[in-house]
Amino acid sequence: MPRILLGVTSSISAYKAIDIANWLTGMDAEVDTIISKHALQLVTPLSIQTLTKRKVYVDMFDESFYPDVRHISLAQACDLCLIAPATANIIGKLANGIADDMLSTVVMAIPKDTPKYIAPAMNTNMYLNSIVQENIERLKAHGYTFIGPKEGRLACDDVGVGALESASKIVEIVGSILGLSRKE
What we know:
Elements (H helix, E strand, L loop, with lengths): L2 E6 L7 H11 L3 E6 L9 H8 L3 E2 L12 H8 L2 E7 L1 H8 L6 H7 L7 E5 L3 H5 L1 H12 L2 E3 L3 E4 L5 E5 L3 H12 L6
Parallel strand pairs: 1-2, 1-4, 2-3, 4-5, 5-6
Antiparallel strand pairs: 7-8
Helix pairs in contact: 1-2, 1-8, 3-5, 4-7
């Protein structure tokens, strides 16, 4: 059974991560989820835990006992990493080697040959900002693959590129990499 690490960051589209986690679980994948602290304002661990039947991680210093170094064991166990939605913040952290929370620390510890997918979601001006674009290119050069974003109406009512790709398309892409298909 393939194991997917799902990272959820604080875009308004974080609610779509619930569908992504549910569909991937329904495709017989084990989904380990890390939600950034700011994303907790938008989705709850309980929503995803209920669907994946697996613990959702938030804090690097969770007081639960684990017989392993959790950020390393999560990184080593995943067959694919997906960050959806990915904010400019997480893209910038990863592009610059910053590991200062549970998600960025785990992603930095993932073996080089493990597929890493990022599905950005942010305001058009943020996405098109030259610094964000440089960070995206830097991550691509290091083997990260980007899914979207797509063009559409954004939460701020702007229309442009920056909307999270549809959950179904994200799941289709990830599923195809791991040889999984959606069950209706």
